[in-house]
């Protein structure tokens, strides 16, 4: 179901989306060589800003299936869920979100932005649109992905972002 048709709860005073339970966000770090795939958001919040492809898990999906669906919807890249490797898990307590990130590599620079994206591009670390990032509070996670890509050494990372601060640590070697 397209994002604009999903049931969402909004605050009647500020019009911000509100939920009373944790939401699961799935993302995909897709590499082509030493570049990662980014998408320019076509929908609010943060329309026009750049982000790593991802979105909310839907009913009756596994984590990897949700990540593969979001990747397909936003970028046109079709990868089976089985091609995605677990990469990062974490929680953002002050917005009630749990996120799970996967990673994969592709051989082609083919992208076909869906209706949730204005454009999609592969960026090297040096060429990233850092001044136009939708959620700069997670820039260090994205920088970690570039470091892992450069070394070819991938671990599963765990992180937590709370009102008191941010922590990230590796929980498993490749």
UniProtKB/TrEMBL annotation:
Single GO term (MF):
hydrolase activity
Q: Enumerate the cofactors the protein uses.
A: Mg(2+)
Q: What protein am I looking at?
A: NUDIX domain-containing protein
What family, per the record?
A: Belongs to the Nudix hydrolase family.
**Nudix hydrolase domain span:** 21-146
What InterPro entries does the annotation carry? Nudix_hydrolase, NUDIX_hydrolase-like_dom_sf, NUDIX_hydrolase_CS, NUDIX_hydrolase_dom
Under the heading SUPFAM superfamilies, the entry gives: Nudix
Protein's organism: Sediminihaliea albiluteola
**Alphabetically ordered keywords of this record:** Hydrolase, Magnesium
């Amino acid at each position: 179901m397209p994002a604009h048709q999903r049931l969402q709860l909004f605050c009647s005073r500020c019009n911000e989306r509100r939920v009373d339970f944790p939401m699961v966000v799935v993302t995909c770090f897709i590499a082509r060589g030493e570049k990662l795939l980014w998408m320019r958001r076509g929908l609010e919040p943060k329309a026009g800003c750049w982000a790593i492809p991802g979105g909310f898990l839907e009913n009756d999906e596994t984590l990897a299936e949700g990540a593969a669906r979001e990747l397909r919807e936003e970028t046109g890249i079709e990868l089976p869920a089985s091609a995605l490797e677990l990469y990062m898990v974490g929680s953002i307590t002050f917005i009630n979100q749990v996120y799970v990130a996967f990673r994969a590599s592709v051989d082609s620079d083919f992208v076909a932005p869906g209706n949730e994206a204005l454009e999609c591009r592969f960026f090297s670390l040096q060429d990233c649109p850092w001044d136009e990032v939708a959620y700069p509070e997670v820039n260090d996670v994205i920088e970690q992905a570039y470091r892992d890509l450069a070394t070819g050494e991938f671990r599963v990372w765990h992180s937590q972002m709370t009102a008191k601060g941010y922590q990230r640590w590796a929980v498993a070697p490749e």
